[in-house]
Write a structure and sequence with these properties.
Blueprint (H helix, E strand, L loop, with lengths): L1 E4 L2 H31 L3 H13 L8 H28 L2 H4 L1 H20 L12 H29 L2 E4 L2
Helix pairs in contact: 1-3, 1-6, 2-3, 3-6, 5-6
Amino acid sequence: MIISRSKPNSLGAAIFYGGLIAGMLDAVDGFVANYFAAGFNPIQVLQFIASRFYGAAAFQKGISGALVGFLAHFFIAFAAAAIYVGANRFLPMLSRDVVMWGTIYGAAVFIVMNFVVLPHTVFLKSPLPLPLLLNGVLGHALFAGLPIAWAARRITNQSSFSTQAA
């Protein structure tokens, strides 16, 4: 039997780097997509994220509304990384095919957030226009799921040890 364990600090590093990189890339993708789709600047995009807590008042809060959106965005990115890294410890297949599982995970995160979690928040908007929906699924697959999966594999495999038992 092979037992593989990762040091706790390596799991934290995988969550930190996976969440940080995914959060940054996803934010840039969201800024660009929303600029071209609706003419929104980054502050407005972050205020929209905050509107899930404050409703329309988030847009009146200026930079403080954008800061709440920024913090919420990165909280979600780190939470998504923590879930994947945790699952990676128990499902070794996640480390074997990072591209497949990372893209599936990123797309799943987008779908769960937009069709399960966000409908239960304060500010409900009409459904996403098709270009933003497609960008959201593809963007999360490539810019959120893949960095999280790569960080989980790279960091947890570097600090893993194996013992053989008969």
